[in-house]
Amino acid sequence: MNCIIGGPIPLIAKQVAAYRDACALAGWEGGTIGGVCSIYVAPTDEEARARVRQAWAVFTAHLVQLFRRWGLAPPNDPTLGGDVDRAMELGVLVAGSPVTVREHLERFEAESGTDYFVGKFALGDLSHVELMRSIDLFASDVMDR
Questions:
Q1: DSSP string, 110-128
Q2: Percent of the chain's residues with pLDDT above 90
Q3: Which residues contact 98 (CB under 8 A, 6 or more apart)?
Q4: 1 to 21, 29, 30, 31, 99: CA distances (angstroms)
Q5: 6/68: higher pLDDT
C-alpha cells in the first residue's frame, strides 16, 4: 500500500514514522510514501505571495462551498479556514521565488521521511498561463538545482 500525506513537515514526518512502525510490527516492509504541498512559483517572493493570496481565497471558497451551505466545518480543512499566512507559515503552501521554493523542498527532503514529493500547482483562480509559468520555473530553476 502506497500513500500520500499532506500537512506541515513535522506532521508528515510523524505520520511517516507511524506508518513505518505499523508496517514493521506487521512484519511488512510497507509501500512508498509521498508528501504533498501546494506550490506557486514566480520570479520574486513578493509577486508569488501577492498572487497566491487571491488564488487561496478562491480555492477556499470552492473547497468549502457545500460545508458552508449546510453550516458545517470541513473536516481536516486543507485551506486552514482560508488563512493563507498560516498555510505558508506551516509549509502546506509554498509561494515564492525559485530560491524560496527550493529551500522549502530541501527542508522537506531532509525532515519529512517521505520517499517522494508531490507538488500541487493548480489552485483557486490561477490561469493556465500562470500555472504553466509556475511549473516552468519549478522545472527549470527548482528541480534542476
A1: HHS--SEEEEE---TT--H
A2: 76
A3: 41, 137, 138, 141, 142, 145
A4: 14, 10, 7, 5, 34
A5: 6
Please report how the helices 9-25 and 98-111 are oriented relative to each other, as an axis angle in degrees rounded to 10: 30
On the CB side of 49, how many CA atoms lie within 13 Å of its CA?
A: 14
Residue type, 111: E
Position 105: which residue type? L
Number of other CB atoms surrounding residue 98 within 10 Å? 20
pTM higher than 0.70 for the full model?
Answer: yes
As a whole number, mean pLDDT of residues 103-110 equals: 95
Is residue 38 over pLDDT 90?
yes
